[in-house]
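Please, structure for the following, as tokens.
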Amino acid sequence: QVQLVESGGGLVQAGGSLRLSCAASGSIFSFNAMGWYRQAPGKQRELVAVVASGGTTTYADSVKGRFTISRDNAKNTVYLQMNSLTPEDTAVYYCNYQRRNLYSQLLDYWGKGTLVTISS
């Protein structure tokens, strides 16, 4: 099992910034990717940003240029720096850790989520 501990959510005004952190522990081997997803009220969970094992990053179009994902390999921690926040960024943000098992199947682990609220 993989345990994920998220932090950094909160309430900020539009135009402000927040930094989310997610630390992974447990069976953190055969790492494939780690990142952030979000789910707004009444909407499906969507990808925000992911960093793959080779360092490649992927962003949702809606956050490109505003959000930056980074990973500290020594700490098994991923960060999401969010700038120029808008009310449309309001959501519960979930950390995701993806690894492969002995059969090379991808396994996904999720954090409990951290609420980000942007006021207008």
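The two ends are 39 Å apart (CA to CA). The chain is about 0% helix and 60% strand.
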